[in-house]
């Protein structure tokens, strides 16, 4: 399938564009994606702030593995998010991994404040947590999300990945109690391609609900897989 016109990959176009924020997405497995916040810093360098895994927050130069969808914020609000992205990156907060989003935020100090009964964040919900706290924008109506059979498979995969990581370290880095919390939590997963697709909509149309985002999300998935 052809790549949608609103799903971009030309770094020079982004540098010269009026936009300074986007949701960047890349394929990391045969059927899975990873996302982060793409932003232009004060030096006009392109950085991706992304939550890679449990206690693994990264701020890296954009590479050619990513596509992205621009977030059409006005310049003042966008600058505020860019400033906060750099602050969050500098704090190197130890964010726990958890799949179901319940409203947690990355606060103005650059640290994670969990919601009640929230286990942690994913690469997707990390972005939600940043935007809701920093500019008061809900990209998606996360409470409208539906649980799907594939979500259970994803939980099992991530639980296995956490336990496997512990086996490779002399001292386990992820407490078994936390892994059990991920395993036992009710799983309603916002997928990376779904949140990326939300950026296609105007700010006035946000937040988009589960059903509205499915078509553009499927277009992203078909184009990148």
What share of residues are in beta strands? 15-25%
The number of helical elements comes to 7
The biggest beta sheet is recorded as: 5 strands, antiparallel
| Alpha-carbon Rg, integer | 17 Å
Q: Within the largest sheet, what's the order of strands?
A: 4-3-2-1-5
Order of SSEs: HEEEEEHEEHHHHH
**Strand element count:** 7
Could you estimate the helical fraction of the residues in percent? Answer: 25-40%
How many angstroms separate the termini?
Answer: 9 Å
**Structural category:** alpha+beta
**For the residues shown, what is the average pLDDT?**
94
Overall 3D shape: globular
Low-confidence stretches: none
Outline:
With 225 residues, the protein is α+β, with helices and mostly antiparallel strands. It has seven helices and seven strands.
Strand and helix map with partners:
Layout: H1 11-16, E1 21-29, E2 32-40, E3 46-53, E4 56-61, E5 67-70, H2 75-91, E6 105-106, E7 112-113, H3 123-134, H4 149-167, H5 176-184, H6 192-198, H7 210-224
Antiparallel strand pairs: 1-2, 1-5, 2-3, 3-4, 6-7
Helix pairs in contact: 4-5, 6-7
Descriptive terms for the model:
225 residues, alpha+beta, 5-stranded antiparallel beta sheet
What does this structure look like?
The chain is built from 7 helices and 7 strands; from the N terminus they run αβββββαββααααα. It has 225 residues and is of the alpha+beta class. It has a 5-stranded antiparallel beta sheet with strand order 4-3-2-1-5. A two-stranded antiparallel sheet has the order 6-7. α6 (192-198) packs across α7 (210-224). The longest helix has 19 residues, at 149-167.
């Amino acid at each position: 399938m052809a790549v949608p016109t609103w799903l971009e990959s030309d770094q020079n176009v982004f540098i010269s564009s009026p936009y300074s924020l986007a949701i960047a997405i890349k394929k990391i497995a045969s059927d899975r994606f990873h996302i982060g916040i793409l932003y232009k810093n004060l030096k006009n360098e392109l950085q991706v702030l992304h939550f890679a895994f449990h206690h693994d927050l990264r701020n890296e130069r954009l590479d050619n593995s990513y596509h992205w969808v621009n977030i059409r914020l006005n310049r003042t609000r966008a600058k505020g998010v860019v400033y906060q992205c750099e602050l969050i990156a500098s704090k190197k907060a130890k964010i726990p991994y958890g799949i179901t989003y319940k409203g947690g935020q990355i606060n103005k100090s650059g640290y994670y404040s969990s919601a009640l009964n929230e286990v942690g964040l994913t690469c997707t919900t990390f972005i939600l947590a940043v935007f809701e706290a920093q500019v008061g924008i809900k990209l998606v109506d996360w409470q409208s999300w539906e649980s799907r059979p594939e979500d259970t498979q994803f939980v099992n995969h991530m639980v296995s990945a956490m336990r496997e990581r512990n086996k490779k370290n002399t001292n386990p880095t992820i407490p078994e109690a936390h892994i059990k919390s991920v395993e036992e939590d009710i799983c309603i997963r916002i997928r990376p391609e779904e949140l990326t697709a939300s950026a296609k909509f105007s700010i006035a149309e946000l937040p988009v609900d589960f059903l509205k985002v499915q078509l553009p999300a499927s277009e992203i998935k078909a184009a990148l897989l």
